[in-house]
Amino acid sequence: MFKKILIANRGEIALRVIRTAKEMGIKTVAVYSTADADSLHVKFADEAVCIGPAPSRESYLKIPRILAAAEITNAEAIHPGYGFLSENAEFSRICEEHGITFIGPKPYMIQAMGDKSTAKENMIKYGVPVVPGSDGIVPDLKTARRLAKEIGYPVIIKATAGGGGRGMRIVREESELEKAFDTARNEAGAAFSNPDVYIEKFIEDPRHVEIQIVGDAHGYITHLGERDCSLQRRHQKILEESPSPIMTPELREAMGAAAIRAAETVQYIGAGTIEFLVDKHLNFYFMEMNTRIQVEHPVTEEVTDCDLIRDQITVAAGLPLRRKPLKMRGHAIECRINAEDPANGFRPSAGRINVFHPPGGHSVRVDTHAYSGYVVPPNYDSMIAKLIVSAPTRTEAIARMSRALDEFVVEGIKTTIPYHKQLMRDPNFIKGEFTTHYLEKQFVFNPDLH
């Protein structure tokens, strides 16, 4: 087992890794930008190294500085967290070349799953259901017109190297195709330095359900059930829960088996997530694989009584997983608490937190790097906390989340707490009747309600 690891990330996920590492007897090294000097992950690590100014391209994305920090502190391994360099195959490769273990998959695994068109080809070979679409990259508009006609409108154009909704356009009729195709390619080129796109059938009003998998270096791959991530705004997740309200034992068995087959296409090592779209008839289709820990991993931990960060570290050290057969218990919900103003188009709300009082009580968990007096920098993702609750049933979990949100006091900045409070009282959410478009098309936030 490692004696010391460096966490190449910031905020709550860096602190999350530090906590598990300490429980495992492993020393930790935090890296931070000048904007994060007062973040809790810096305070609780055994050592901390400043790697640059506030812009992420000059700090958290600066591979030479992160490697230098690892070398001067004698860190044996690097945990990338999520975001930043977590799915960067080049970073994984460079770590290997420098004799530092990357706590994540091998470079070829990241590459194979990171390019969505290649990943889709692999899924088809292994019998994993996929959305009908192009066989790889669509090179030009003429090809796009032919494919869209064959698939049938509506279709969706996606960047092969994309994520977060960038390089993505929905096309409902042929007259919209040319503009959407050009826009998606331009956006993809600007965001990912790769303008390549592919086309798929657009599944109307689906659920977004993902399966957590973990694999070790000894050929063992297992899944830990599903998470429902359908509640999204602008393709960004707002709330996640496990199990999914639409799940049946038969569907879980089928999706879990498909997820394992998907991971087996690259003999996957580490923690990863296979994301699926599920239509109203409970047909499911492979969407993509995330080769990292997910923001929403705590809901899986709460219903399976596991520590996914511990699993990641264990597997990276070359040790076998010792996993009991899957047994999900109860229900867990996670609300992302962002420094945003939901009453004003979710405008970012950076600044000083004057009061920060997190909720407590039975089966209430708060993953956060914030505190009273902490200054939320404007340079990074707006999430300041994750509020996770668990209970024997979904109804009880909703009641517990509602109570916990009432206790959660953050003053000095605007947050999404009022938005989540209202969502907990929404009849459709309570019944579990929603899709990926629900928040943008049907749910209406009223800032006057508290």
In short:
The protein contains 15 helices and 22 strands. It has helices at about 10-25, 40-45, 65-70, 90-95, 105-115, 115-125, 140-150, 175-190, 250-265, 295-305, 310-315, 395-405, 415-425, 425-430, 440, and strands spanning about 5, 25-35, 45-50, 75-80, 100, 155-165, 165-170, 195-200, 205-215, 220-235, 235-240, 270-280, 285-290, 330-340, 340, 345-350, 350, 355, 365-370, 375, 385-390, 410.
Give your account of this protein's structure.
By secondary structure, the protein is α+β, with helices and mostly antiparallel strands. It has helices spanning 11-23, 40-44, 63-72, 89-97, 107-114, 116-125, 141-151, 177-192, 249-264, 297-304, 308-316, 394-407, 417-424, 427-431, 438-441; strands at 4-7, 27-33, 47-52, 77-79, 101-102, 155-163, 166-171, 197-201, 207-215, 221-233, 236-242, 270-278, 284-290, 331-338, 340-341, 347-348, 351-352, 355-357, 364-368, 375-376, 383-391, 409-411. The chain is built from 15 helices and 22 strands. The strands form six sheets. It has an eight-stranded antiparallel beta sheet, sandwiched between helices. It has a five-stranded parallel beta sheet with strand order 3-2-1-4-5. A three-stranded antiparallel beta sheet has the order 7-6-8.
